[in-house]
Amino acid sequence: MFKVVNWMIVSRSQLLVDLLDCRWPQEFLVKLAKATPATMSSQLSSHQNSLVVFDLATIDLQQVYQLQKLIEREHYAVKTVFLNFPKQVDAKFLIHPATTAGVFYCDAELSQVSSGLNEILKGRSIIPNDLHKSLLSDIADDESEHLTIREREVLQALLSGSTNLDIANQLFVSESTIKTHLYRAFRKIGVSSRGQAIAWAQTHMHEVRV
Description:
This is LuxR C-terminal-related transcriptional regulator. InterPro entries: CsgD-like_REC, Sig_transdc_resp-reg_C-effctor, Tscrpt_reg_LuxR_C, WH-like_DNA-bd_sf. Keywords: DNA-binding, Transcription, Transcription regulation. It holds the Pfam family GerE. Residues 140-205 form the HTH luxR-type domain. 54% of the residues lie in helices and 13% in strands. The protein is of the alpha/beta class. The protein has two domains: 6-133, Rossmann fold (3-Layer(aba) Sandwich), CATH 3.40.50.2300; 143-208, Arc Repressor Mutant, subunit A. Helix 6 (149-159) packs across helix 9 (194-208) and helix 7 packs across helix 8. The longest helix has 16 residues, at 129-144. The radius of gyration is 19 Å and the shape is elongated. The N and C termini lie far apart (41 Å).
């Protein structure tokens, strides 16, 4: 169990920040710091925050991924919560079992969020059942379905800024074949865009380099 004293909300919505600032300090007896993606790192270094809440409605998912990785590397005691988690976009790559304490979908009511945060204060993790099952399924898939050598080569090429046509020429295959490799690799590593794949590869490439 961890004791929450200082929380931080990372959002570009001043309206949401003001709303939560009126409610959460009194409701949970916490101090609520406010940050933007650009100021989060410096504020984390100067304050003893134990919980960071990301507003995914106002921040690019790839940027949140990088900030989440920063927390994992440099602030291992800090837990994270995601508000406005998208249902139509696969954003499971953001969730880390060691740091993610809560996930709330974009249609969650404020009362549901408050109830979930009370559970998080007690040391529990709050993740929707369907998302939790999907994460468990991905873990099972990871154990049996690994990146092929060709998929690793394609991911490696992404890091150098190569286009699909560039990669196809390098590997002497068609551009459509590269698209197929990318689709399969994206599904295996749990990302849904080229930018997310590059962000993933920047962190995990030492594991997939051939």
